Amino acid sequence: MNLKWNTNMLNSFYSVIKIDESFKKIFEQFGLPPNRTIEQGFESLAKIIIGQQISTNVAKSLSDKLKKDRMLNEKIISEASIKKLKLYGLSSQKSSYLKNLATLTIKNEIDIKSLNKLKSDEVTNLLIKIKGIGHWTINNYKIFALQDTNAWPSADLALQEAVKQLKGLETRPKEKDMEKIGSMWEPHRAAAALFLWHFYNKVKIEKQTINYD
Question: What's the CA gap between 71 and 85, in Å, rounded?
């Protein structure tokens, strides 16, 4: 499936540029955020759970190992032991979270592929009840799978660092501060987040290049 940003998200990019001059500067220097959309469903939500509190590279490595062995499937994970999942580098806690989500999916107690039919707050209220799924996971799924233009993962460290650098703050804003800052960009906070990640990744690459020279 050839996924791409939908019309609402694309429009949201241009709307947030008009709200805040900072995003216009990012756009002029780096262009629009790259396509990072993901398919709706168990596998994508599982990958986001795997990525909780670890680096993007480590998360991708773990997910790739599971994917290679065709493990990222609700039926297979629901039947796998915690011991087997830990062999892929997952913690006992995350293995438990994945098994729980897989079991709920198998039992039709949650239909992940139908979340796009719900309102944003309904998605939050449904997923937050599931063990191992917090607001960071929900908002990332909303942005990349559901393309919810106002989702805002305020606890994301890279996002916090990007805001610090872009706005010239002395310290990295905390989650509570991020909620206040994000309110300036409503109802286009997801577009703002994508611009901020885009900016952060570009700046990080440039710094790495300078360091190696």
Answer: 9
Summary count for the chain: helices (H), strands (E): 12, 0
CA distance 163 to 169: 8
Tokens 């580098």 -> residue: 89
CB neighbours (10 Å) of residue 80? 19
> CA triplet 164, 169, 170: central angle to 5 degrees?
115
211, pLDDT greater than 50: no
Number of C-beta neighbours around residue 138 at 10 A: 25
Q: What is the mean pLDDT of residues 64-72?
A: 96
CA pair distance 145, 41, nearest whole angstrom: 8
pLDDT at residue 206, rounded to an integer: 62
Looking at every residue in the chain, the average pLDDT score rounds to: 94
- Name the token pair of 61: 């490595």
Q: How far apart are CA 188 and CA 183, in angstroms?
A: 9
pLDDT at 207: 58
Q: Which residues contact 17 (CB under 8 A, 6 or more apart)?
A: 23, 24, 27
Averaged over 75-87, what is the pLDDT? 97
SS3 150: coil
- The upper half-sphere exposure of residue 158, i.e. CA atoms within 13 Å in the direction of its Cβ, equals 19
CA angle 50, 55, 56 (to 5 degrees): 75
**pLDDT (average), residues 7-36:** 97
